[in-house]
Design a protein that fits this description.
The chain is of the alpha/beta class. About 40% of the residues lie in helices and about 20% in strands. The structure holds S-adenosylmethionine (SAM). One of its GO terms (molecular function) is methyltransferase activity.
Amino acid sequence: MSKSKNVWAEFFADKRRGGHRSSAEEFLAMEAREKLFHLDGGETLLDFGCGAGELLVYYAPEYEKTIGVDFSPSMLEESSKRIRERNCENITLILADDKTVWDKLDSSFDRITAAGVFQYLTYQEIEEFIFNASNYLNKGGKIVLFDMLDPRLYPLWKIGMFSQDKSCRKFLYKAVCGAKNIISASLKNHPIDILGYSHNPNKIKKIANKNGFEMICVQSMYYEYKYHAIIFRT
Ligand SMILES: C[S@@+](CC[C@H](N)C(=O)[O-])C[C@H]1O[C@@H](n2cnc3c(N)ncnc32)[C@H](O)[C@@H]1O
């Protein structure tokens, strides 16, 4: 594991929630509906970085077989609870990270997805993931990366551009704090904040193309500063 990976593995080691804008079931159900729309069918699904299973339990009824993968034992514990409560019998959970997951799989999938996870991977790790995923993708399959942080919109969200309360003083204060964080993080070679790294959609598209895929980028419906990368072969 790389040094930066350790930071995230440690951060998530005792976490129990996926950090959705709201953890109300009505909100999670809406988020899952949007995601199922983009997943657009398939019979088998791998949910990488499934966390507490907040979306996975909504995906499962639409698939024959689903696998949830996460490197956080506490997240998987929460996932197990949720799966039991919902009687989802077609979900298997695997404790693994982006490097170790591939050796633990014994079949390929129609859909490989991740929601709010790739912000914890570097471009190089994303490239390796897409390369490996392509070997576990069935014909006509898709890799769908939900809720990637958009580097063009994320800084605007950070300074409160999308918030209801847009006073000048608040903007200025947040902009100065943001700049201080960026400088301090780059000096320490740390990610800027706990939301991880933002990734330029054009660079993700280049990685997809290099691995023989097309990619379309769709604005996230519930997070103004996030986009979904839908990766497929033509
Ligand atoms: C923000 S949460 C999202 C959880 C879930 N996808 C959801 O939307 O509810 C990110 C999850 O990704 C997992 N994760 C981050 N990096 C990972 C990696 N390299 N390998 C496996 N899991 C990872 C974390 O443990 C955490 O559960």
